[in-house]
Structures are given as structure tokens and as C-alpha cells.
Write a structure and sequence with these properties.
By secondary structure, the chain is mainly α. The protein folds into 2 domains: 54 residues; 214 residues, Orthogonal Bundle (MetI-like fold), CATH 1.10.3720.10. It contains 13 helices and no strands. The two termini are 39 Å apart.
């Protein structure tokens, strides 16, 4: 077998493997779309496409007064945007201090930040519940931004600290020679070159806040204040023993599409942010 044939076979094998992985990853989402277009007894069919596709389940999501799904989407968008903004602001400022300033205990502080993200949510649930009630954030969708920071901020700080640490010191030295303050260095020198890391950490923080369930279920009981994951779990059918798979799948598709769009739009910056610092030249 000559070298050209080996290269062709290797490339074909690579494409075949990529196709298999793509099918394995995308088929559940495709099946959710198919199920969301079915109704009645056809929901129990294993056909890969419904015989009579209908948007009935999507329409029902936004027309049931007892379950304001549209309001829940807005609540999730609002709290996720708040979490991203707060995580990036605190993450950038902390990253500058941890990545550029030398002080005693910096390594221990970084390990502490990482350790916070290792605690399961249920371990801090009772203490966070008391805190939310004490400061008046209980039963408000925007109040969920505080507990969500527990699992978004540590990752944001770690990624941005690594990125800042790898930036050329000449940038900072030139800014200091020009009389820039630390705040000006962060906002005018570092931020323009940190976009890949900011997009990556911001998007991951958005996804984490968008999909969070336990805190949203525990800290909000008013139906109008709920977020999307809890809303999906409370979708019910005409009969209390009936599981409305069509509506559940329709809701899952609706809340997944925005995440897919965001990833596709920012995919290049995401790759750049995840690989930043991997190779030093």
C-alpha cells in the first residue's frame, strides 16, 4: 500500500469518526425536535419523522395562563445576563490582581477559589437559604444571581488569571511609563486583547446560569418568578398522571436553540479562549 493510499484511508477514517461522533451528539436533540412535532398516540412511535408534524406543542407552551413560559424565559435571560456581567467584572479585576501583582498568600487564595467550586450545591443550600432570606433576595428571580456566582465566579477567575498571566509584560510596562493607573491598564490595555477569554468564560457562565435547577427551585416559589429549568419540570398535562412529552420536548428545544446560536456565533473566540496559554512562544 503506497503512501497516497494510506493518507486517503486515514483521512476517510477521520471523517467517518467525526461523522459518528456528530450523530451520537446531535441525535438526542434531533429526536427532541421530532418528538416536539408529534401529538397524540404518535408520541409513542419511534419514527424518525412525524407523519403529520404540528406546532401544537409550541403554541400550547405560550398560551397556558397557569404556566407563563414566556415570562420564565425572560426571567432566565435576565438572571443569566446579570451573572455574566458580575462574573466578568469581578473576574477581570481579580485576574489582574492574581496574575500581575505579587503578594503573600496568592497561591493559597487561588486554591481557595478553586476549592469553592468543588463543593456540591446541596452542601451550601441551607446556609444560602438563610442568607437569601436575611438580605431580602428570597423569591425574586434577580436574587438568584447571588447563589449562581458560587459556581460561575471560580471558573471565571481561574481562566482569566491564566490569560492575564500569559500577556506580554511589555504591554503593562509601556502603559505604566505613559502614566496609566491600574484601572486604566485593565480597561484600556488588557480588555481589548482579552476578548477570546471573556467570550469563553462569559458564555460558559451564561450556560451554567441558564441551566441551573436546584437553587432556582429552592429560592423561588412564586410561579411568575421562576426560571426556565423549573418551568419545564412543572409542565403538566390534562391529567395529573399524564406526562406531556410533546410539550416538554418543545420547551427543551426552545431553551436549547439560543445556546446553540451563541456557540455558533462565537465559536472562533471560544476556541481561542480555551486554547490561550496552551502554547507559549
Amino acid at each position: 500500500m503506497d503512501l497516497t493510499t494510506q493518507r486517503i484511508l486515514a483521512k476517510a477514517g477521520l471523517y467517518l469518526l467525526a461523522a459518528l461522533i456528530s450523530v451520537f451528539c446531535l441525535f438526542p436533540f434531533y429526536f427532541a425536535i421530532v418528538t416536539s412535532l408529534k401529538s397524540g398516540t404518535e408520541l409513542f412511535s419511534t419514527a424518525l419523522w412525524p407523519s403529520a408534524p404540528s406546532l401544537r406543542n409550541y403554541i400550547a407552551l405560550f398560551t397556558v395562563a397557569e404556566q407563563p413560559f414566556g415570562r420564565h424565559i425572560l426571567n432566565s435571560l435576565g438572571v443569566s445576563a446579570m451573572v455574566v456581567a458580575a462574573s466578568l467584572f469581578l473576574g477581570v479585576t481579580a485576574a489582574y490582581a492574581l496574575g500581575r501583582i505579587t503578594f503573600r498568600g496568592k497561591g493559597l487564595l487561588l486554591l481557595t477559589i478553586l476549592a469553592v467550586s468543588m463543593f456540591p450545591q446541596v452542601a451550601v443550600l441551607s446556609g444560602m437559604f438563610e442568607l437569601m432570606q436575611a438580605i431580602g433576595l428570597y423569591n425574586h428571580w434577580w436574587g438568584l444571581a447571588l447563589p449562581y456566582m458560587i459556581f460561575t465566579l471560580p471558573f471565571t477567575v481561574w481562566v482569566l488569571t491564566t490569560f492575564v498571566r500569559d500577556l506580554p509584560k511589555e504591554l503593562e510596562e509601556a502603559a505604566i511609563m505613559d502614566g496609566c493607573t491600574p484601572w486604566a491598564i485593565v480597561t484600556k490595555v488588557f480588555l481589548p486583547v482579552m476578548w477570546p477569554a471573556l467570550v469563553t468564560t462569559g458564555l460558559l457562565a451564561f450556560i451554567a446560569a441558564w441551566n441551573e435547577f436546584m437553587f432556582a427551585l429552592t429560592f423561588v416559589f412564586d410561579n411568575s418568578q421562576r426560571t426556565v429549568p423549573v418551568s419545564i419540570s412543572l409542565i403538566s398535562g390534562a391529567d395529573k398522571y399524564e406526562i406531556p412529552w410533546g410539550k416538554i420536548m418543545a420547551a427543551s428545544v426552545v431553551v436549547t436553540v439560543p445556546l446553540i446560536v451563541l456557540v455558533l456565533v462565537f465559536q472562533r473566540k471560544i476556541i481561542g479562549g480555551l486554547t490561550s496559554g496552551a502554547v507559549k512562544g
